[in-house]
Amino acid sequence: MIKLENVAKYYHNEGAVTLGLRKINLEFKLGEFVAVTGESGSGKSTLLNVISGIDSYEDGEMYIDGEETSYFDDADWEQYRRDAVGFIFQNYNLIDSYTVLKNVETALIIQGMPKKVRLQKAKAIIERVGLTNHLRHRASKLSGGEKQRLSIARALAKETKIIVADEPTGNLDSESSKQVLKLLKEVADGRLVVIVTHDFENVEPYVTRKIRLFDGEVVEDKKLRDYSLTSIPEKTIGKMSTIAKTFQIAIYNLLSQPKKTILLLLVAITTLFFVFINYGSKLVAQNMDHYGNGLYNSYPERLVVTRKNKAPLTTTDYDYFMSQSEITKVIIPDLVVDAQFHINFQIKDSYYYEDGFLNFNNDFAHQVVIGRLPQADNEIALAFNPYSIDENNLDKPLNAIYDISISTANGYFQMPYKLVGIYPTTDQSQFILSEGGITKLYDLMKISLKGYQFIVKDGGVEQNLPYGMISVNNSLSEHNIKISLYYKDILPGNLEQAEVSLNNVPVTITFDALTDHYNTIFVSPSFFQELKVDEDYQYTLNLKDKDQANKVINRLFDNGYYAFSPFLASKVIDFDAIFSVITNIFATLGVLFSVAVTFIISYLVVRSILLSKKKDYTILRIIGLKFQELKQVAVLEIITIFLGALLILSGIYITLIIGSYEIRNLVNKTFTFWNYFSLITLSLAVMILIAWRFTRMMTKKSLFMNLKVEGE
Ligand code: ADP
Ligand code: MG
Hints:
- The longest helix has 33 residues, at 627-659.
- The protein is elongated, with a radius of gyration of 43 Å.
- By secondary structure, the chain is of the alpha/beta class.
- It has 23 helices and 28 strands.
- It folds into five domains: 2-239, 3-Layer(aba) Sandwich (Rossmann fold), CATH 3.40.50; 254-290 and 577-711, no CATH class; 302-332 and 536-569, Alpha-Beta Plaits (2-Layer Sandwich); 335-432, no CATH class; 451-531, no CATH class.
- It has a seven-stranded mixed sheet. It has a six-stranded mixed sheet with strand order 6-7-8-3-9-10, with helices on both faces.
- The chain binds adenosine-5'-diphosphate (ADP) and magnesium ion (MG).
- Residues 11, 13, 18, 20, 38, 40-46 line the site of adenosine-5'-diphosphate.
- The site of adenosine-5'-diphosphate has 12 residues, from strand 1, strand 2 and helix 1.
């Protein structure tokens, strides 16, 4: 059945060539029980590895059932090992974490045996080798003799015509050795069993033939007794699909090593968590767009909205927002919503200091305490708690001009306003401007926030002036501007002689003390029209009901907008603080970079765990799992872990969002379905890639070498 003609095997090791076998001629027949003996290094193992297809040969020809094997490729050898050869090793090569039953079962799974048949068969074989008492014990818990009987059982499960055993009794005491040899003798009937031993005395009573090697050559080949062929084993053809096989093995692997599985699970959970946090922080950062984070005014019904693509908002957007039933008002001059007004005023002998935002919500028309609503651009009314005002002295402050200072995200203005009315409110103080007054203020803020170029050219030296606010002064004309003396102090050269330009328009400068306006550039009304910014990048939307915020945010997100609720954000204090720390860290690192780092770390951990499984994987291949199938096993293990992690994370997540309104808000406004989908797909792809790469790495070495490294 196996015939070797002038077969030679060399080992190439770092330039040196060692002879394993030299021109071996041998023939093995079914039913024989052959002992191969010889000194250490004589080539016994090499011979065994060659005939069992674990290792290759260089010269000559080996025939299997008359077929030449020199043209066999990897797949042919895989098939041969699976169908024809059962292996028994000196160091057993069992899957230690598997139970006795599973070790045998796995060999049957690889043969494609379905569960019912498999269990029956496995139990029968285990009975035959006398291990029924240990059915559910881990292989690692067995004694040496029991382990070797288990490996015989596993070889039997394959129902192969050839069984090879390399020093199977090398690690056993004499009693166990006898049992093992007796067992081998029993199973040899109808098979070819080749056993390597350096201790011929012990095996002599059992074997039918003796071959002695010396220095890679056959120096003795002697028939000792007749052999019978009474029971040639029938091979059962398995019916399991590849995926059913690999999935079953993957599950066995995961279940039999719970510690590694849990570790992998934790890595997967951490990776997913970080990827989401990372990506989430990026989304949150994007949400806080266009004019930065100067959202001071956080009344509950307010949403701030920008386009995802950062384009200016237009009337189309306005109409779209207005068409949403939850939205009652679209405030285009959104920046003004965040402007904080401060006023110092005096009524009779009482001094008041009030600050607050502009009012966009309430209608004060019928609640006046004194005066009226503003009509002209420079008129202002104040709504505050009026009960502290002495009613007898209410006339006095009206119609006086107040310098009202206005704080914005980028600095503050001082604007002269005429106070024309006072209104009652039980809320915080609020300021009321006319429509025109709002527009005017908005235009000023827009120019200042957009930034401008204020350049001084003096004798070829060009210099940017420091940043300030733009404001209008009616007494100026054309391209005359007025700035504080402060500029004179901080700039070198002679400003009166220098060429100065504002947004590339040459200007003439006058100086003023302007101590309260040291950073303001005053321009003429006509120049202001030239400088004006037309685009709006951010609107404020007023909701009918604050509880509709998330619904609207999500809908707008799906329609190309980022919407943000300053109120909800201010409510999630703790979580938001954590989030913003993470945002800062990861924004600094760069989102891509930190995602990469997360992946590299998880890659290393996953790889090291897979490496620790390498021995088991090699054993699986030796007992007949094809390489493609092994790849599937590794990938399926990873996918199972990953899905487990996803399930656990989802569980935590659902508990959190059911339990906490705030977290739900934060998460809802951050992630959409497609975010989830793409992140999960990406993470899964990376995991699979790791498993794939790892199994490919295993093929770089021959099976024999993998085993050798592991065996040591
Ligand atoms: P035995 O099993 O009889 O002790 P082997 O078949 O293991 O002997 O080895 C036969 C010869 O081949 C020895 O000289 C040994 O050093 C050499 N050899 C075996 N395996 C390798 C290897 N992987 N690389 C280099 N030389 C090897
Ligand atoms: Mg050897």
